[in-house]
Amino acid sequence: MIGVVGGGIAGLSAAYRLQQQGHEVRVFEASDDLGGLAAVYETAGDPIEKFYHHLSKSEETIVELAEELGLGRDVEWRIGKNAYYVDGVVHPMDKPWEILAYPHLSLYDTFRLGMLVLDVDMRGGIPSFDSYERLEDYEDVPIEQFVVEHTTRGVYENFFEPLLDAKFGDRKDDVSAAWLLGRVKFRGERDILNGEILGYLDGGFGRLLDALVDAVGRENIETGTRVTDLDTSGREVASLTATDGDETTTHDVESVVVATMPDVLEALTGYACDIDFQGTVCSVISMEESLFDTYWLNIADEAPFGALIEHTNFVPAERYGGEHLLYVARYVQSPEEDIWKQDDEAVRETWLSGIEALFPEFDRDAVNWVRTARNPRTAPVYERGYLDMVIPYDLGDEVAEGVYYAGMASKAQYPERSLNGGVVAGYECAERVARRATK
């Protein structure tokens, strides 16, 4: 039997692929729910993810999985409109003329930013088309230094810095230029006249998780069951021990895929990961009417959040019984931050007061409900030297033969953590299990 620790999308994808290869698989999930960060809230219509999700065109593996599971026709590609809120004004940033009209970048700033996005290095005035091919070359370069050298100071201060503040807070100076370049490459296609093309699954990504559970077989998944020990004493995994309430069982295993955060891996094997993670406080606000007309609004003004994401400007509100759904979120670098320590009612007041300050016409009486989720480890801090800290898929040399890792500290979750990265990590581990089995 192959044991899979973790019932999120990475663990379920690993189990699915392993079964396709003919292995007997059992998934162990410590919580009572499957899906991890893709868990959902109910609305007046379709469910909505607790943490915002969409796909970029570069994310192909998850689309292929949806097709295999009979959901391929339900993957929709839509325009995800973006804008910047600066000095009380919402500036659309999708169409070429909108970007050119953005008053906080000069024409030269806009040109240099455009060249960077197109992977063209314009230093010295002579275009180079291969400077950015190897992300590793920029792994130890501070992001501010890179942006200023490869574009302009204005591009850094008026475009990237507000985004970095929202994403990494006081850790922004630790982030590497390799992450930024990788992030630019990660984002997918653009409709030149409209904006970025993003994907969503009709009915929500919970449908994909449900289909994976059905494919793996609910009888092969144990929830509320925490794996507490792996027997690797012989330098080869032999068994795992799991606890379900008061009952403890031991299972003989040929291999184990750990598809969790790295602290669980360390507790089970002693393998320590040096990657730092940031948390998120994320709320969904249901409103009777729309707040603005864009999907993703970056906030460059003083506010308790770095972005407002109006999901129903991306997916029609009719899907949710007419509710207009707004994500309000903030990344948290320390549990000592005020927003992390606030209870749900205090978070609600923080968000609504912040929205009122930016949009005086906002009517909080038109709010139907606010639901808040917290997670202390929603994304890595992609600091310099990050690629040297990722956990290998195959931990045969580091821990014991037959131990594999598919969690968020794997290479598949670079340069951005995503549902697609979870699928890729699960598949990568399954392929390595298969190679080991044929030796």
How does this model look, in words?
With 439 residues, this protein is α+β, with helices and mostly antiparallel strands. 29% of the residues lie in helices and 24% in strands. It has helices at 9-20, 61-68, 96-101, 107-117, 143-150, 153-168, 177-186, 206-216, 262-269, 338-341, 344-358, 419-437; strands spanning 2-5, 25-28, 40-41, 48-49, 55-56, 75-80, 82-86, 89-92, 190-191, 195-201, 221-222, 226-231, 239-244, 247-252, 255-258, 277-287, 296-299, 307-310, 324-332, 367-380, 403-405. Strands 8-7-17-18-19-16-20 form a seven-stranded mixed beta sheet. A five-stranded parallel beta sheet has the order 11-2-1-15-21, with helices on one face. Strand 1, helix 1 (9-20) and strand 2 (25-28) form a beta-alpha-beta unit.
Our count of helices gives 12
Overall pLDDT level = 93
Oligomer designation: single chain
Low-confidence stretches: none
Query: How can the largest sheet be summarized?
Result: 7 strands, mixed
Work out the helicity level: 25-40%
Q: What is the rounded Rg?
A: 22 Å
Record keyword descriptors for this entry.
439 residues; alpha+beta; five-stranded parallel beta sheet; 12 helices; 21 strands; globular
Layout of helices and strands:
Layout (H helix, E strand, L loop, with lengths): L1 E4 L3 H12 L4 E4 L11 E2 L6 E2 L5 E2 L4 H8 L6 E6 L1 E5 L2 E4 L3 H6 L5 H11 L25 H8 L2 H16 L8 H10 L3 E2 L3 E7 L4 H11 L4 E2 L3 E6 L7 E6 L2 E6 L2 E4 L3 H8 L7 E11 L8 E4 L7 E4 L13 E9 L5 H4 L2 H15 L8 E14 L22 E3 L13 H19 L2
Parallel strand pairs: 1-2, 1-15, 2-11, 7-17, 15-21
Antiparallel strand pairs: 3-4, 5-10, 6-10, 7-8, 9-10, 12-13, 13-14, 16-19, 16-20, 17-18, 18-19
